[in-house]
Specification:
The protein is mostly helical. The chain has a domain at 13-227 and 377-395. It contains 18 helices and two strands. Strands 1-2 form a two-stranded antiparallel sheet. Strand 1 and strand 2 (307-310) form a beta hairpin. Helix 7 crosses helix 18, helix 10 runs antiparallel to helix 17 (354-373) and helix 13 runs antiparallel to helix 16 (319-349). The longest helix is centred in the C-terminal third of the chain and has 31 residues, at 319-349. The radius of gyration is 21 Å and the shape is globular. Residues 1-10 have low confidence and may be disordered.
Length: 398
């Protein structure tokens, strides 16, 4: 009997084609601030997800998916007791959160539909990171020509936020790219070293110190995971779960340290003042929280020196603190359980995949830093960035 070679099913390659298109657009979108990442990811996920084989993945990961669905469902339900009333579907944060998480999951599934799909997704992710690095380098060296052309009437301080977010996106994409390239031939080694050097240089630009911290923590997590894949992935999931639980206590304590605040730049003093205001108010609704987007309804003003600012500008600039304030101990517990279970399950799955484990740990650890000190819990582009990190890790599997 002659052994037949396996013929790839038609969707086995085509599932990654929408991802390739996504990464072709990711560079320009990221330089402009990344806000369009979420709708583009939703489209790529819907077009590329291998639906015929999706049920197998659902069955294998059902504990994590159930916990994630419970968290998202509880967040959406908290609209019922939130003081923030959505005036349109665009402001329906619970619905947008559910759609964003679903889109990120489908996008991640599309990256791993088959070996050939993973190869295409890897190549597209690497190319996207290279293009993004080049565009950001042009912005840094030539006083933001692309952003100034698009928004000629916006001041430098505000305009820097766009390429600053672009660098945050690059930092997360970097670890997926070098996870796929590390251990390769001389050209692949040259590519990942160039990406690494370029990203660390750009992390110091555009007045966003959080990008430097995200790069450093991500690189450390990447290196540990390359040597001990299962340990690092599991430890990251458990560590993030513990951080979600402890964040309001740690950040609340830090915010009361006057000597620390006085030694920090003004932007960090403002951040500490925001945390000092929000942390004690978690106790006003400790179990169920104040409701999703309740942070938007705070009208108090904060003061640091001669500077006056909204006490909570849309969100507390710390996602774990926001989860506690808006969803209480129930929401924080569900999120922590999701992260812990996800880390343990992914650790087992990637125990023999150092490249994929390193990509996952580097990207998620970097994103966790940014999520903890800079951005809101429900920002669509941040959820999309999580989908990018997981998709690149999925594609890095060999």
């Amino acid at each position: 009997m002659t052994e037949r070679s396996e013929t790839p099913r038609p969707h086995s390659v085509w599932s990654a084609v929408p991802l390739a298109a996504f990464f072709a657009l990711a560079g320009p979108v990221a330089v402009a601030g990344g806000l369009a990442l979420a709708p583009l990811q939703a489209l790529a996920g819907l077009l590329g997800a291998p639906f015929s084989g999706l049920w197998r993945g659902v069955k294998s990961a059902w504990p994590v998916l159930v916990l994630a669905a419970a968290f998202v469902g509880f967040a959406a339900a908290s609209t019922l007791w939130s003081p923030f009333t959505p005036r349109s579907l665009e402001e329906a944060q619970g619905l947008k959160l559910a759609l964003g998480v679903l889109a990120a999951a489908l996008f991640c599934a599309a990256a791993g539909g088959s070996p050939r799909a993973r190869a295409l997704a890897r190549a597209a992710g690497i190319a996207g990171a290279i293009v993004l690095l080049g565009l950001l380098a042009a912005e840094a060296l030539a006083d933001m020509p692309l952003n100034r052309m698009a928004q000629p009437d916006v001041g430098t301080g505000v305009l820097e936020r766009n390429p600053g977010r672009g660098v945050a996106i690059l930092v997360v994409m970097l670890f997926g790219a070098i996870g796929a390239l590390a251990g390769g031939d001389w050209l692949e080694r040259a590519l990942w070293k160039g990406l690494l050097i370029g990203t660390v240089a750009l992390s110091t630009q555009f007045n966003m110190a959080g990008n430097i911290g995200a790069f450093g923590v991500g690189l450390l997590a990447f290196m540990i995971a390359w040597q001990a894949p299962r340990f690092a992935v599991s430890a990251l999931g458990l560590g993030l779960a513990a951080w979600v639980v402890a964040a309001p206590f740690v950040l609340g304590w830090l915010a009361t340290q006057d000597t620390l605040a006085q030694s920090l730049p003004l932007s960090w003093q403002v951040r500490l003042d925001i945390w000092a205001y929000v942390a004690p108010r978690i106790a006003e609704a400790p179990w169920l929280g104040h409701g999703i987007d309740a942070s938007r309804t705070i009208t108090a003003m904060g003061h640091v020196g001669d500077l006056t600012f909204p006490q909570v500008p849309l969100h507390p600039h710390s996602a774990p603190l926001q989860v506690w304030y808006e969803l209480g101990a129930v929401g924080a517990g569900l999120l922590a359980a999701t992260l812990a279970a996800g880390g343990l399950m992914a650790g087992r799955a990637l125990s023999q995949q150092p490249g994929a484990a390193a990509a996952a740990c580097g990207g998620i650890a970097a994103l966790a830093v940014l999520w903890s000190i800079s951005y809101g819990a429900w920002q669509e582009w941040v959820i999309a960035l999580c989908g990018i990190a997981l998709a690149l890790a999925n594609a890095a599997r060999r």
